[in-house]
Amino acid sequence: MNDSTAIAPMPGSSKLAILAYLGISALVYVLMMVLGLLMRMGQANWLGLPADLFYQIMTAHGAGMVGISGLAGSAVMWYFLRRYVDLTVGILWANLAFFLSGVVLILGGIFLGGYAGGWTFLFPLPSHGMGLWGPVGAACFLGGLLLIGVGFLLLYLDVARAIISKYGSLARGLGWPQLFGNSDETPPPAAVVAATMVLLVNITGIVAGAVVLVLILVNLFMPEFEVDALLTKNLIYFFGHVFINATIYQAVIAVYEILPEYTKRPWKVNKVFLGAWTASTIMVMAVYPHHLLMDFVMPTWALVLGQIMSYTGGFPILVVTAFGALTIVHRSGIQWDMPSGLLFLSMFGWAVGVVPAVIDGTIAVNNVMHNTMWVPGHFHMYLIVGLVAMLFGFKYYITGQDGKPGMFDKLAFWIYSLGGVGLSVTFLISGYFSVPRRWAQHMPEWVGLSQPAALMGAAVALGAAIFAIRFLTSLKHARAV
Ligand code: HEM
Ligand SMILES: [Cu+2]
Fold first, then answer.
1. Which uninterrupted H or E stretch holds 266?
2. Fewer CB near the terminus (10 Å): N or C of the chain?
């Protein structure tokens, strides 16, 4: 295997597709942030948001953010992975087509059909609209998710095909001969290792998601076809947990590829790195019962597994990445600009966000914190300050906006990062005081926290809007290699 061959420039159609993925995601992030802001303003009593509309917005915000993160993460993976393997451009476009058709159905299901049961579509909510939505609205929402899943399934199958045809097997893609054997062949590059892990967990997750979507869809129109509520909840959280986590595992490839360019030092793929990715392949799938800690009918062993895996599962990749990033940057004379700054910020946000997640993965804590604002607190931290910062860092990079940042960029960087930390911390504090999550109307005692949170939300949305404008107006400088 020879990875040192010069990288061929991207054919125009794949460059266009990647820019379409990224451009759409930049716009959707800003739009969905505005929806988040509306919710927070409603909770702050600054906006009279009727409860039914709040839950429609909450459903759109949740589904939209998770979906667009999947799309943007896969663009990062695809862009770098094609440096090493032969990916199919047609499938990249097909995935986008499936995605956009799914989005149309989802938005129709929510804002025309009235579906407001949350992006997690927990059974039997879709069939219990209580007059707010009917089976058609719910079916549009579920069908839209299914369409998006089909697109992603095609994409990851193509990634699997490409990795197998170059490296021989997925085990080799994960570097097992180097990890477990004494092979002195050079291990696959970090991008290939990460992509192999992601395709394994995401194909499994998407198939589980498709199964449960079909079960619930059939039940919607044929209630006599009974569905087991506990089974559906397991499948939904298996799929949901894996899919959102895999977005970071795709976006992090940007760190592995961009920091070496900046520091002119290679990203080292050693046994620790390979071991972390292999261990996480199993753990990211085994940890999902931490979403069911309050479901007393679950077998105890599964919940104990959820707690133990929460303690161990989130760390390996984070540690090898953060440690690797620090060592590669240390005394390298790196130039700090928007791409490298945002990538570094993302490492911080990811690491900080994992801590409250792990705390909540403890059964004794979850007894109290379950379904409080603590939960959106942890994931907004590692999604806004971690994942989305990583993605915007990549967007600055791909449009060639490196080098000394301008005043607007610096300003956007600070209001985005401080706003993101502030928004998440106010969520966490609310959670600490047991303010419930997913409540349209907040009690007068809670509003004192919802109000500063709304201001922070506005800062994040403004920062992201500047990032998005800077990306969209620099598209002509986009690099092809
Ligand atoms: C300006 C930035 C943002 C604001 C103001 C915001 C605000 C909110 C609010 C108010 C909620 C409902 C909290 C509750 O349970 O009461 C929420 C939920 C959520 N947000 Fe955000 N958010 C922002 C950015 C993001 C980003 C960037 C992501 C993901 C990449 C995200 C993903 C989610 C998810 C998955 C939920 C859960 C929805 C549910 O409970 O069904 N948010 N957000
Ligand atoms: Cu989880």
1. none
2. C
What does the pLDDT average to over 384-408?
Answer: 96
**Plot region of 45 (φ>0 → left; ψ -120 to 50 → alpha; else → beta):** left
Q: What phi, psi does 436 have (nearest 5°)?
A: -70, 150
Task: Give SS3 for 160.
Answer: helix
Task: Determine which helix (DSSP H) or strand (DSSP E) holds 279, and give its type and residue range.
Answer: helix 271-286
Helix, strand, or coil here: 262? helix
Structure tokens at 314: 């989130």
Q: Which residues are registered as beta bridge partners of 436?
A: 372
Q: How far is ligand 1, taken at its centre, from the CA of residue 56, in Å?
A: 13
Give the closest residue to 136 by CA, choosing from 206, 242, 220, 262: 220
Which ligand is in closest contact with the Cα of 39?
A: 1
Q: Report the pLDDT value the prediction gives residue 10, as an integer from 0 to 100.
A: 84
Ligand 1 probe mutation, 31, 65, 450, most atoms within 8 A of CB: 65
User: Which secondary structure element, helix H or strand E, spans residue 71, and what is its range?
Assistant: helix 51-81
Partners of 372 in the β-ladder: 436
DSSP state of 386: I
pLDDT tens, residue by residue, 12-50 = 899 999 999 999 999 999 999 999 999 999 999 999 999
Ligand closest to 354 (CA) is: 2
Cβ-count burial 453-474 (b if 16+ within 10 Å, e if not)? bbbbbbbbbbbbbbbbebbeee
Cβ neighbours around 112 below 10 Å, total? 12
Instruction: Give residues with Cβ within 8 angstroms of 339, minimum separation 6.
Output: 258, 262, 393, 394, 396, 397, 401, 402
- % the chain with pLDDT above 70: 99
Report the nearest-CA residue for atom 34 of ligand 1: 62
pTM: 0.96
Tell me, in angstroms, the distance from the centre of ligand 1 to residue 53's CA.
Answer: 15
Could you give all domains of the chain from N- to C-terminal order, each with its CATH number? 12-477 (1.20.210.10)
Residue 223: Cβ within 10 Å count: 12
